[in-house]
Design a protein that fits this description.
The protein has eight helices and 17 strands. It has about 300 residues and is α+β, with helices and mostly antiparallel strands. It folds into two domains: about 120 residues, Aminotransferase class 4, branched-chain amino acid transferase, N-terminal domain (D-amino Acid Aminotransferase, Chain A, domain 1, 2-Layer Sandwich), CATH 3.30.470; about 160 residues, Alpha-Beta Barrel (D-amino Acid Aminotransferase, Chain A, domain 2), CATH 3.20.10.10. Strand 11 and strand 12 form a beta hairpin. Bound molecules: pyridoxal-5'-phosphate.
Length: about 300
Amino acid sequence: MSDDQPKIWFNGEVVPWNEANVHVLTHTLHYGLGAFEGIRAYKCSNGKSAVLKLTEHIQRLYSSAHVAGIEIPYAIETLCSAVVDILRENELEEAYIRPIVFIGPGKKGILPGDNVINVAIAVWPWGTYLGDDAITNGIRAKISSFTRMNINSFMTKAKICGNYVNSVMARQEAADLGFDEGILLDSEGYVAEGSGENIFIVRNGTLKTPPLTSILEGITRKCVLDLAEDENIPVKEQCFTRDELYIADEAFFTGTAAEVTPIKEVDNKKIGSGKPGDITKKLQKRYFAVIKGEDAKFEHWLDYIP
Ligand SMILES: Cc1ncc(COP(=O)(O)O)c(C=O)c1O
């Protein structure tokens, strides 16, 4: 691997990219029990870089690990500082940040026993997740043939590594069929979320998003709910069906990677006018102002990198 690959924080040390390796008998590699996060750092208009909702993301990493029965061998503050340190070490002004907690080799069966718990934090430059055009003009989505995991089979509030088999299959199916993203229904048949995004619709001026019952508690979802409240946009956290999505005036995804991405079509049916709607654009504009440090009211969502 080339030397210009970003360095990685690995169990308390900063190591070159090609030295952050794992053994083939790493427990998580076989059984999927691990937890990860996705965080972004942005270059703000004042020239400084900042991490968006750093504590919330690291807190969710601990919650995911807790659900998985994994005890992270570091304090929350240590991992928050490690994120900042590894960004500085790599001199990255804007980056996607991927902390991962995984169970090492040792016991080979399903029960991990006292195998070592590892933590790594990787960072890399990452532009728009679904493409620049997606942010401006919206994406084409497909209702997935894969159902979102049942709440008693997998723990949907945790970003557990193995959960993402469901997401990868939905995203791959959508891509194979020429769509940008898949939308998964829950086991009751209601709209749940995208493979890596929460979903919102707008009908008659009201914003609607599925309740947290069977989806990931998205940090961007919460940002958008707070921004909507600030804009006096009425919000309902309520289940809705696939046909309600088809007849929505507007629809969009939220996510750390996807940010606020308009959905212009679902299953080849136009959503509203087939162009990003006014409420979507208003919330998207506000979100982008916040992440650039241009919105004083929500600047506390940013941790500036010293
Ligand atoms: C399944 C799923 N839903 C929703 C989201 C959006 O969550 P967040 O806004 O915290 O990135 C993600 C991304 O982490 C995800 O993987």
